[in-house]
Specification:
The complex is a heterotrimer. Chain B contains twelve helices and no strands. Chain B is mainly α. Chain B has one domain: Orthogonal Bundle (MetI-like fold). The N terminus of chain B is likely disordered. By secondary structure, chain C is of the alpha/beta class. Chain C is globular, with a radius of gyration of 20 Å. The N terminus of chain C is likely disordered. Classes of the chains: A mainly alpha, B mainly alpha, C alpha/beta. Chains in contact: A-B, A-C, B-C. At the A-B interface, α1, α7, α8, α11 and α12 of A face α4, α5, α9, α11 and α12 of B.
Chain lengths: ~325, ~325, ~325
């Protein structure tokens, strides 16, 4: 329990760090966004609108600490400012729709990749020298060396464009209306297959190699030797004694990997015009829409922190040593 | 992870490790090829910016890798891009390991409050998602390779710091360090003369890993347009390819060669690292020797200790 | 420790009763890139039914290797390169995986040196006892009962079944290790330095408990340790190892009173008795030889105070000296 609360405290701290970073970035960098915006919208914005913009950015004339508190209050309310590219829509509204798609895509991909990669790692370590151990690691290492989005491009080109097996983009067909029916859900999966597939292929190798190496270490431990000596069935030795323990370092790494995979998936979304945060991010960058960019950064960071905390909860259930102080 | 077993002494041991392992040899050769390409390549091909032909031509004898959406030679672009991409990759990789070593070893060596504070810093940086952070910071800075390098170091140093910190913590407890401290050696001397030399295999592995990260992340940022889009690097090549709708016009040659280069370099580095794996983890080396010996005696590797009858040893005279 | 000077007398096995375990010319090599290193060289010894045999020697002399070789659980790069291990009518070295699994634990079990490392950190004590029983066909109802019984045998409360290894002290974990080893009532239990990591008092209690169990159930014990004093207290016979070879075997009392091999003499001088007159603490000069390039002839000759020319060239074979004693020394005839 203490461990879990301790971790929560850490994530709150990290979230605060991200917020503070967000606050200071525009104030540290050369030029302030409002002035840059004014230059952009030259002649198209009334002075009142510019004033409103500056207020919306929090760039008032109040002292710094007061601006900071106002900023924190706004964020707590869910007010992330106003988007420049989609002016006058608030950032939270712009982000809102896309968030679900990003979580669906990246979340499912990361879980699938972890599950399959870990199982393959167990197989590789148990049947050392077998084909799973000799062929797959270099193959996936090679696939993993490609940038995610490049793999996406290739898969899109070959499987989508040339062979026409999968759709070329978006989350669902234009002709369908969203709803919880089978036809729509099936279409969503069809559209998700390529982007998800490319993320899984690119990240599988890492999990596999990590699990394999952890397994090899664990298989050399005394408790595995004892398990074998006790005459336990090989399946039990490999699963409940070896894999169960080798899984722990992978789970620890999972939390960190979430952030990494999420970053990569943003780029993948761009290739497939997937209506998630990635597409919005690229628009934000090109239009110098700082509020939107920072809003996306914040939302993604909070999502990653939340996911990390969930992973910690899972870890506690897996490793009894974290549960209470030894008596 | 890697243990601080007997560290290889001298370049000879590293070279031997490469030669002994097939994967590492392949990796080294591949890497050497790309470095050579980066060094002398640009003088062997035409200008990457010149408009040399009709846009979006497939590979032909005139242009081995075809032309881009604007009519530039893809081969020239790929080759010229090698230099900057590798430079930034190796540079950032080294910087990240240096910074990580500086902070990580300090944290692990001094312990206490210093460690507590630094560890918190590492963990916060590790948990913040890298690419979004990089994008947000880079967006406020002028576009170009310096910015890219800066944000990559900013988002990448924490991992190395943490790994090197744990290794330092482990070594710190060993007797030879305690003896040096008691003997009155200065901290700096202990760190540089006793600690770091025992971490060489880990540092090399980190360097290789960081370079792989740097090259891949750099390409990602440039793909988004945060690099210098008028410059020629692998990442900007991909940026322009998407901009000119390469995919949807079927012009695969505008993005495939670049991606292949990135992957091959990354792959080469990973293969090289796997050869050093054995140096770091002696168990792997022993297992390999064991398997080879059994093969020579026509016995399958069994789970239980194998029984292979060999003729009695002739006592050494 | 309350154990009296001599171990409880057992009727020595009659001439007609075959030994429970008979090791003949066992050799174990460790393979490496520079060639194999012989860690155990043509070792032969017997263990009678109900006997406690001790195996003594310095670190690295091969005693743990022999123990694990009996169960064939040595990890790579170990290879057994010769000999026979005859146990209850079959040669364990010739058995296949399935047959080995039937023998392991049911007839022949082991207590590892460091119980902390030998217990799975993510399973409770109860689960680790139970899976041993279930793997050999025990029914559900019986399993729970039997687990409590086993804990009681080693002096632990039944509620410890729900504990994880990290929640127990070193001594308690070692007791669990013994309970696991006795779960299937084997005929032979090998103890590989079972108390090295424990303090003296806990060590005494655990060995006491173990001997009581042995008296009750009648299993044989092979007790491996470098603590010669302890060994002489509890073993019937002692085998002394040096550099991968067996150099002397004798009943404990006889070994203590009249050791025949110079190495044994040196060892005993290094472990003086607490009772009795003050004697100078002896030690053996030099260090054990490298197994990769051992000295020719007798491996102990570079450190031996009684060396003669023959020792340098001719390997002494283990020869019987009467009274169930044997020694590998040219001078011990």
């Amino acid at each position: 329990m203490r461990y879990v609360l301790g971790r929560l405290g850490f994530y709150v701290l990290a979230g605060w760090a991200a917020l503070t970073l967000n606050f200071f970035l525009p104030r540290l960098m050369p030029g302030d966004p409002a002035t840059a915006l004014f230059a952009r919208f030259k002649g198209r914005l009334s002075p009142e609108a510019v004033g409103a913009l500056r207020d919306a950015f929090g760039l008032t004339d109040a002292p710094l600490w007061s601006q900071y508190l106002t900023y924190l209050a706004h964020v707590a309310r869910g007010d992330l400012g106003i988007s420049v590219a989609y002016f006058p829509a608030p950032v939270s509204q712009v982000i809102g729709g896309g968030l679900a798609w990003t979580i669906f895509l990246a979340g499912t991909a990361v879980v699938l990749s972890f599950a399959v990669g870990t199982l393959l790692g167990v197989a590789a370590a148990w049947w050392r020298g077998g084909w799973v151990d000799t062929v797959l690691p270099p193959l996936f290492a090679f696939l993993g060396a490609f940038p995610y989005f490049w793999l996406s491009m290739v898969m899109l080109y070959v499987l989508g464009f040339q062979l026409r097996l999968f759709p070329l983009g978006h989350a669902y067909g234009d002709d369908l209306t969203p709803g919880w029916n089978l036809a729509f859900l099936a279409d969503v999966w069809r559209h998700a297959a390529l982007p998800m597939g490319s993320i899984v292929l690119a990240t599988l190798g890492g999990w596999m190699l990590g699990m394999r190496n952890a397994m090899i270490t664990v298989l050399g431990s005394d408790y595995v030797a004892l398990a074998r000596a006790k005459g336990l069935a090989p399946s039990r030795v490999v699963l409940r004694y070896a894999a169960r323990n080798a899984l722990l370092p992978s789970v620890t790494g999972f939390g960190m990997a979430i952030g990494f995979v999420l970053g990569g998936s943003l780029l993948t979304e761009i290739v497939f015009s997937y209506p998630g945060q990635g597409y919005l991010l690229v628009q934000a960058v090109r239009n110098q829409d700082y509020p939107l960019m920072q809003g996306i950064f914040l939302v993604i960071t909070l999502a990653v922190l939340g996911a990390n905390w969930l992973v910690d909860l899972v870890y506690v259930s897996l490793d009894p040593r974290t549960r209470e102080v030894a008596s | 992870m890697s243990g601080a077993g007997a560290q290889p002494t001298g370049v000879g041991a590293w070279w031997q490790a490469i030669r002994r392992d097939r994967k590492a040899s392949l990796g080294a050769a591949l890497l050497a090829f790309f470095v050579a390409l980066g060094l002398v390549g640009p003088w062997l091909v035409g200008s990457p910016d010149a408009l040399v032909g009709i846009p979006l031509q497939p590979p032909s004898l005139a242009h081995w890798l075809g032309t881009t959406g604007q009519g530039q030679d893809v081969l020239a672009q790929t080759v010229v891009g090698t230099r900057v991409s590798l430079l930034i990759g190796f540079g950032v990789g080294a910087a990240v390991v240096l910074l990580g070593a500086l902070l990580g070893v300090t944290a692990g060596y001094f312990g206490g409050a210093v460690d507590g504070l630094l560890s918190l810093l590492f963990n916060v940086f590790l948990v913040l998602p890298g690419l979004p952070l990089a994008i947000v910071v880079a967006a406020y800075l002028p576009a170009g390779p310096a910015t890219v390098a800066f944000v990559l170091v900013l988002t990448g140093w924490a991992w190395n710091a943490r790994v090197l910190r744990s290794q330092t913590l482990m070594l710190r407890q060993r007797d030879f360090i305690a003896a040096a401290v008691v003997g009155g050696e200065s901290h700096l001397r202990i760190i540089t003369r006793e600690l770091l030399p025992n971490m060489t295999s880990l540092l090399v592995a980190q360097l290789i890993g960081s370079t792989v990260y740097a090259i891949g992340a750099q390409v990602g940022l440039e793909f988004l347009g945060l690099g210098d889009v008028s410059g020629v690097t692998w990442g900007t090549n991909l940026y322009w390819a998407t901009n000119d709708s390469a995919l949807l016009t079927g012009a695969w040659w505008t993005f495939v060669p670049t991606g292949l280069c990135v992957a091959l370099v990354g792959f080469a580095l990973v293969m090289l690292n796997s050869g050093f794996d054995e140096l770091a983890n002696p168990r792997l080396q022993l297992e390999r020797a064991w398997r080879g010996w059994l093969l020579g005696h026509r016995h399958p590797p069994t789970r239980s200790t194998p029984v292979v009858n060999v003729p009695p040893q002739v006592p050494r005279g | 420790m309350a154990e009296p000077g001599a171990p409880a007398p057992l009727a020595p096995p009659g001439p007609a009763e075959p030994p429970l375990l008979s090791v003949r010319d066992l050799s174990v090599d460790y393979v490496s890139d520079d060639g194999p290193v012989r860690a155990v060289d043509r070792v032969s010894f017997d263990v009678a039914r109900g006997e406690v045999l001790g195996i003594a020697g310095e670190s690295g002399c091969g005693k743990s290797t022999v123990a694990q070789a009996l169960l064939r659980i040595l990890p790579p790069p170990a290879v057994i390169t010769g000999g026979q291990v005859l146990f209850e009518g079959s040669d364990l070295l010739r058995l296949g995986e399935a047959e080995l699994r039937a023998v392991r634990w049911r007839r022949l079990s082991m207590v590892f040196q460091s119980a902390m490392d030998a217990l799975n950190p993510v399973l409770t004590v109860g689960e680790q006892l139970a899976d041993t029983l279930r793997a050999h066909g025990a029914g559900r109802a019986r399993v729970r009962e039997r687990c409590s019984e086993l804990l009681a045998l080693v002096g632990l409360q039944a509620d410890r079944l729900e504990s994880f290894p990290h929640q127990l002290s070193g001594g308690m974990r070692q007791r669990v290790g013994i309970a696991v080893a006795l779960a299937l009532e084997p005929a032979l239990v090998v103890l590989d330095e079972p108390t090295t990591a424990l303090d003296v008092i806990v060590e005494g209690e655990i060995l006491q408990r173990l001997l009581e169990l042995r008296r009750r159930f009648g299993f044989s014990v092979v007790f491996i340790t470098h603590d010669l004093t302890r060994m002489l207290q509890i073993c019937d016979r002692v085998a002394v190892f040096y550099s991968g070879r067996l150099v002397e075997v004798a009943p404990a009392v006889a070994l203590r009173e009249s050791p025949r091999h110079p190495y044994t003499q040196g060892l005993l001088a290094a472990f003086p008795s607490v009772h009795g007159a003050d004697v100078e603490l002896g030690s053996i000069p030099g260090a054990p030889p490298s197994l990769r390039s051992p000295p020719p002839g007798c491996r102990f000759h570079p450190r031996c105070g009684q060396v003669v020319d023959r020792c340098r060239t001719e390997e002494p074979r283990l020869s019987a000296l009467g009274d169930r004693r044997a020694a590998a020394c040219h001078l011990a005839r």
